[in-house]
Amino acid sequence: MTTQNDKELIPLINQAGLLASQGFYAKAQALLAPAMEKYDPHPHLWHNWAQILADSGNIIEAEKWFCQCVDRWSTFLPPYETLIHLVRNRLGPRPHPEALFVLAILYNNQGNAIEATGDYPQACASYRQSLSFNEKYANAWSNLSNSLRPMGLVSEAEDCARKAIAINQTHVGAWNNLGCALTNLGQIPEAEQCFAEVLRLEPNHPMARHNAGSGRMFNLLFIQSLENADILKAHKEWGKQFAHRFIEKKNQTQTVGTKVRVGFISGDFRVHAMSLFVVPLLQHLDRDRFEIFCYANQRRFDGVSAFIRSLPLTWRETITLSDEDCKELIRGDRLDLLLDLSGHTEGHRAAMLALRPAPLIAGWLGYMASTGHPAIDYRITDRWTDPEPESALNHTEKIAYLKGSQFVYRPEIQAPSVNSTPALANGYVTFGSLNNVRKLTISTLKTWSDLLHRLPNSRLILQAKLFVDLGTRGYFRGVFEAFGIDFNRIELRSYSLNNQHLMTYHEIDIALDPYPYGGGATSCDALWMGVPLVTLAGNRSVGRMGVSILNALGYPQWIAKDHLEYIQIAQDLASDPVRLNSIRLGLRVQLGASPLRDEAGFAKDFGQTLLLMVNGVPE
What residues make up the domain containing 526? Predict the structure, then answer.
């Protein structure tokens, strides 16, 4: 937000910069000197003052101001480059090791500032520079680990975190980063030990508390060997931490004749798979019946965030608010119902929800399972994803059912056109999956290997961000070869940005859904690109998203009840490339005419469900 000081200072700073660029250093300093006295510390003002001092040859004074600037505003990038240059020049050809450590610290801190912008490759470059001056600098190893992981380089991230711990066994950041890397690599038990070590060293470490708590709940959903009762029990145990909180008894409010005030809270109002489903609802909910509030619990915003803000709704940013302040903010909006779109995923406000910020709280979409949270009253879903009556046994929340599917899909505007099925030209069928690596369980890979054995000429393309990682690629190669599959038949691709990943579907004839955790947006993307989807109907919500999507589309015949039927469905589709091509060329039109693309109809169904919850659902 631009302050009044900014409005006065920025033109002044720019004018001084122009004078300095023309060599009028004394005039530039004379222009800024009164501002340095008059105004509170300001990063751009202090940086320009230091830069003018440096350009005019006053190196000692310039370095002092640059240091003060980065000390006060550690994530403010502009001062670092010149400060590092000045320090390197001052050290000379044979610097003392302590002086080199100063450079290591500066490069490390520059990396932190760059990392805050989301430029992970450049941040890694700064951390590596830091380590070139001091290879025993644990902070730089830990931070390098943290920036490698979002790039998919999780094996190297693991190695860097371990190097940091070898240097400093009490480095909480390194232990947490090691746990995160191990989680990405599927080594959950060891990851949990790392998070436990963090909490032993620093009991209130926020990320480790999430990873050991909500993060662990989320991880359980991927484990096929767990019974649903065991997963629910773990979630209930997690929820007991809020038993001491004073959760006010909800007061049902009759809203007949008035607008229902509905809030949505999420850490993902941005470019995210969830936004493909949420944005159409926010756009189409009837404003004559509902007043909408969005509580964005996130640090980064983008074009999707801006579009949501442009809708007729009230936008609030809550990431910096304490639980108490966030609760008071939401209570001040006098909601009838608050919808939590995070569950146990990153950006949740579980502790705040325990303070009962609204008379009714419901979960939807962001977490495809019961949360176990005692303050969440309902979970909104559909009867395909959570069939009656057995699903009620797997929830602490009451289930509020939509009439149709809980998914409404808005494809990317720049999605490529549908092409002919590649098998016609290739002479063989190519299967594919663009799902997250964590969903590709041993059971899934075994089923896919059995399918490849049935069709010896077929191929398989797997695309995910972590396939940039050599360790991950090696693991998958080992699994497929253990199942007797020549790895030359498998292509592993790293994830590509924007809509370019959709181009991969031009090379895939049939999409394969993993289990026990299936695809949501990924499945809809495949269908929009004309690629049939084979799914297995699991016994938990995360394994039945494809059931809901395919029933809404009108293709229940692509839903298997077990892995043998899964293989048979895929084999039958692959047996007739001409028929497969006919399906492909018509699938986008069918999806476009289906309930999955009926945004207004979905919003009406969703709105009716909201009204039933607010006005009282019969027990």
Answer: 423-597
